[in-house]
Specification:
Elements lengths: L24 E5 L6 E5 L15 H5 L12 H9 L8 H9 L3 E6 L2 E7 L5 E5 L5 E4 L2 H7 L1 E2 L2 E2 H4 L6 E4 L1
Antiparallel strand pairs: 1-2, 3-4, 3-9, 4-5, 5-6, 7-8
The chain binds zinc ion.
């Protein structure tokens, strides 16, 4: 017998009690850009205009970051007004690393991963390449990580997608 796993592949799908609909879709205005977004009643719908994922928790705590959205609601509004992507800046990224979050990102069409190994060291890998960089601490990563000899802190302006992995 095979057991079904959820989309992240980390365990069984939680059972939904009978009579509870998880699928009720509502239309509301996006908390960041104000355009109409279709979202399940309890959040999770992604705005097609700005990319914000509707999140009732962040509506209540607009300075909170979680893994749905990579920046806080207040920060997202500022970035949107400035015409920037809703992505964490390098300092915010380091902050998440100190909290133990691994992540991946895209830069110029290539995918990179930053992972914590079993010795608590950080590795920067480029997917599809054999080489990697290794750092003893987040501070070392901050000062030493580079892509094509350009410090990551500088390349970071040009990344397109970031995902945290828990
Ligand atoms: Zn939006």
């Amino acid at each position: 017998m095979t057991s079904r796993t959820n989309i992240r592949g980390i365990g069984p799908i939680p059972k939904i009690p009978k009579g509870v609909s998880m699928k009720k879709i509502i239309e509301k205005s996006c908390d960041v850009c104000g355009n109409i977004v279709k979202t399940p009643e309890y959040g999770g719908g992604r705005c097609k205009t700005c990319g914000w994922i509707d999140d009732p928790h962040q509506r209540e705590y607009p300075n909170c970051k979680n893994s749905n959205n990579l920046v806080s609601l207040n920060r997202a509004k500022l970035l949107w007004q400035e015409g920037k992507k809703l992505l964490p800046d390098f300092a915010e990224l380091l902050d998440m690393m100190r909290r133990g979050f691994e992540f991946d990102f895209l830069l110029h069409g290539r995918k990179y991963e930053v992972l914590l190994d079993k010795d608590d060291r950080w590795r920067l890998l480029c997917i599809g390449s054999e080489s990697f960089q290794i750092f003893d601490s987040v501070d070392e990563f901050a000062n030493g990580a580079s892509i094509s000899d350009i410090p990551l802190s500088i390349c970071w302006e040009e990344i397109s997608v970031v995902d945290y992995m828990e």
